[in-house]
Amino acid sequence: MAKKAKTVYMCSECGNEYPSWQGQCSFCGSWNTIIEQKILDAPDPELDSRRRTSTGGKAVKLAGVGTANYARIDTGIGELNRVLGGGMVLGSLTLISGEPGIGKSTLIVETANKIAKKYGPVLYASGEESEEQVKLRADRVCGELSDQLYIFPETNLENIIASCEQIKPCFLIVDSIQTMYSSEVDSVAGSVTQIRACSNLLMKFAKTNNVPVFIVAHVTKSGDLAGPKTIEHMVDCVLNFTGERDRDLRILRSFKNRFGTTDEIGAFRMTSEGMIEVSDLSGSLIESSALEEGSVVSATYEGSRPVFFEIQALVAHASNGAFGRRTALGVNYNRVSMILAVLEKKAGLALSDYDVYVNVVGGMKSESTATDLAVALAIYSSCKGKHASKRIVAVGEIGLTGNLRSIPNADKIVQEAVRLGYDAIILPKKNAEQVKVGGIEILGADNLREAIKYYTN
């Protein structure tokens, strides 16, 4: 609801409000100094709870505004701190989503216990599980539980906030927002209206009490967040937990972060004892050092670290002479189709009657164009039955003309390749000219044909 403005008449000389229309100020005696001014009511903190700082209801110069260093809470989990930008910001609202059974609740209960041990009371509001179910999980993954960790199996959000007023938690978890409801809204839990209303209440609680809040959210069949899109705009941070059910690797990504970068990822392994941090992600993704046809190692730069992984391709004759199938797992299907067209035009590969399968080993998913060259070399290797004679990393974006385009952070990728013990790295020529790293052979290629020669020699 918009604030109403009231009109007052003031003296331009003395600034006092003038109560009559006689033309003379009753305070300073000046004539013809009456001016009309509209004044807004003072902001209501209950209605304007999102405001972190106040300018007194007036516009101010941006150059004169100081920047705040927001205090952060150490979650006790390095990979989670990395994705959040260094820890949880006080008063922040974080939305975390993922498929059922991916490990959201496991990660959160570990975080809650670590924060409770270090900072004080933490409230875990569970709308999906009973206190016994949460306790069984906590005993399994946390070991010794803190006396400051509280569980409240409740779906009424007003009751949860009332409990917060008693406990005074330094961290609040709501699992999940789809099970919560507000008594002030006449609709069932999980509806768009209820989710929006509950999110507003949690946002107001977080901002007015300076308490970080984690909201667990469900996802749809397509992997998108369930509920209105406005929730993603309201919260400060949106995290997504992904992974394959038949693999133990879990990747935590930030889709939105007002207090950090959205390029950072966190890596975990799901075990019976809970989530185990994976600090050396590249080493864990590359299991085999054997030189095999159809297998090429590539890399991307995620946030503050390079990530290496193996790309495999299989090219086989299509059955009954039919048009070949194309399957891509972990890489963008449309880019694979484009790379196949470039290989046919620039490298002379006729693949229309071949099935082509491309897969990123380890369950990683890469949207970076830096993997284009590795995909092309893996397809070429499988088609021709050739493989490299030494351990090679290939990174580079392929243009429609077949030329290789430069990639960002190539020097850091080369340094990681040296650490992992690779013999050579194929880079776009522009990157190769700029990189000054020893201990590895740097092969700069202008186009796809040159890169293929480097790989097969």
Per-chain topology:
Layout: E1 5-11, E2 34-40, E3 72-73, H1 78-84, E4 88-89, E5 93-98, H2 104-118, E6 122-126, H3 131-142, E7 149-153, H4 157-167, E8 171-175, H5 192-209, E9 213-217, H6 230-234, E10 237-243, E11 249-257, E12 265-271, E13 274-277, H7 281-285, E14 295-302, E15 305-317, E16 326-329, H8 333-346, E17 354-360, H9 372-384, E18 392-394, E19 397-398, E20 404-405, H10 410-419, E21 424-428, H11 429-434, E22 441-445, H12 448-456
Parallel strand pairs: 5-9, 5-10, 6-7, 6-8, 8-9, 16-17, 18-21, 21-22
Antiparallel strand pairs: 1-2, 3-4, 10-11, 11-12, 12-13, 14-15, 15-17, 19-20
Helix pairs in contact: 2-3, 8-9, 9-12
What does this protein look like?
The chain is 27% helix and 26% strand. Strand 8, helix 5 and strand 9 form a beta-alpha-beta unit. About 2% of the residues have low confidence. The N and C termini lie far apart (71 Å). With 457 residues, it is an alpha/beta fold. The strands form 6 sheets. A 9-stranded mixed beta sheet has the order 7-6-8-9-5-10-11-12-13, sandwiched between helices. A 4-stranded mixed beta sheet has the order 14-15-17-16. The radius of gyration is 29 Å and the shape is globular. The longest helix is centred in the middle third of the chain and has 18 residues. Helix 8 packs across helix 9 and helix 9 packs across helix 12.
Quick recap:
With 457 residues, the chain is α/β, with parallel strands linked by helices.
* Low-pLDDT regions: 43-53
Question: What is the makeup of the main sheet?
Answer: 9 strands, mixed
Rg calc: 29 Å
The number of E-state strands comes to 22
- Mean residue pLDDT: 87
Q: Helix coverage percent of residues?
A: 25-40%
Q: In what range is the share of β-strand residues?
A: 25-35%
Strand order of the largest sheet: 7-6-8-9-5-10-11-12-13
Q: Distance between termini?
A: 71 Å
Going by helix content, strand content and strand pairing, the class is: alpha/beta
Q: How many distinct helices?
A: 12
